[in-house]
Design goal:
By secondary structure, this protein is of the alpha/beta class. It has ten helices and ten strands. Bound molecules: nicotinamide-adenine-dinucleotide. The site of nicotinamide-adenine-dinucleotide has 25 residues, from helix 9.
Length: 278
């Protein structure tokens, strides 16, 4: 396996472009899944307080024997904790659950325009405290639209290092990605496989057959070549290994373009402008 590329964030910190997501992995299965991923060469884990499995992620990283500095760990603020004191308490809880004294990246999970008076700017300023303290090496946001990012831009000091958004061949997110590129905000594509929905697409199937790769590998490779950061989820060891095995081939520009043309602006998850956090 060729090595996983790194991306340098706008604050100089480095993130592996490829990692492992643990959304909807039951706590009792999480440590084993993360162990499989680490053994397969993954060095970047994406979790969240709301996934309920931070402790098991921490357990697997600790048991791996890898140095803390060799595994990039992201977590995210609970939707219940946007008020600054609640955010401080939640962040302490995240570090404790993971059993670490810093996370590599901490995100506001959703903008939540209808909660806490939609005041995610105060929430962001609280994340800036964690960043200054060094307890979050980088801070960022998730599910932010350009108008949310513009509001932060005008009213805060630190530019988010990343924006983690739903993105896959059926939701290419051209506008948000262009805005992020313009402002040096790295894009992380969540549900990079569209939760599996894009894998039966005939265009992807045809490209996969020609490349001698699986549809999942082709889609993940498409993300990598677009420059986004991805962390597919699977609890099946065979798929965990298959998903990381994408650094020994390249899609042509025409293939990348054909996959991008599959866009239907079709979300598998909530609309960030409407999502109330419930
Ligand atoms: P995904 O696109 O990674 O799809 C996962 C599903 O695809 C699996 O459950 C499995 O059914 C299938 N799959 C995986 N590998 C496969 C393979 N090789 N062949 C065939 N099928 C395969 O979806 P996801 O888990 O929703 O997203 C990945 C990660 O993104 C999450 O684990 C989480 O870390 C993050 N995420 C973040 C947010 C957010 O709001 N910030 C929301 C959802 C997910």
């Amino acid at each position: 396996m060729s090595s996983i590329p790194n991306i340098t964030l706008n604050n100089g910190q480095v993130i592996p472009q490829f990692g492992f997501g643990v959304f909807q992995i039951e706590p009792k299965r999480t440590a084993a899944a993360v162990r499989t991923a680490l053994e397969a060469g993954y060095r970047h884990i994406d979790t969240a307080e709301m996934y309920g499995n931070e402790a098991e992620v921490g357990e697997a990283v600790a048991a791996s024997g890898l140095d803390r500095g060799d595994v990039f760990i992201t977590s995210k603020l609970s939707n219940e904790a946007h008020e600054p004191d609640a955010a401080r308490e939640a962040f302490d809880g995240t570090l404790k659950a993971l059993g670490v004294d810093y996370v590599d990246l901490f995100l506001i999970h959703w903008p939540l325009p209808t909660r806490y008076d939609g005041d995610f700017v105060s929430t962001w300023k609280t994340l800036e405290e964690f960043y200054r303290e060094g307890r979050a090496r980088s801070i960022g946001v998730s599910n932010f639209q350009p108008q949310h990012l513009r509001r932060l831009h005008g009213q805060s000091d630190v530019i988010p290092a990343v924006n983690q958004i739903e993105a896959h061949p059926y939701l290419t997110q051209d506008d948000v990605r262009a805005f992020c590129a313009q402002h040096q905000i790295a894009v992380e594509a969540w549900s990079p496989l569209g939760k599996g929905t894009v894998l039966d697409d005939p265009v992807i199937g045809r490209i996969a057959e020609r490349a001698g790769k699986t549809p999942a590998q082709v889609v993940l490779r498409w993300h990598i070549q677009r420059g986004d950061i991805v962390f597919p989820k699977s609890v099946t060891p065979k798929r965990v290994k298959e998903n990381i095995d994408i650094f020994d081939f390249e899609l042509s520009g025409a293939d990348v373009n054909d996959i991008s043309l599959l866009n239907k602006n079709e979300r598998t998850g909530p609309d960030p402008d409407k999502f109330t956090g419930k």
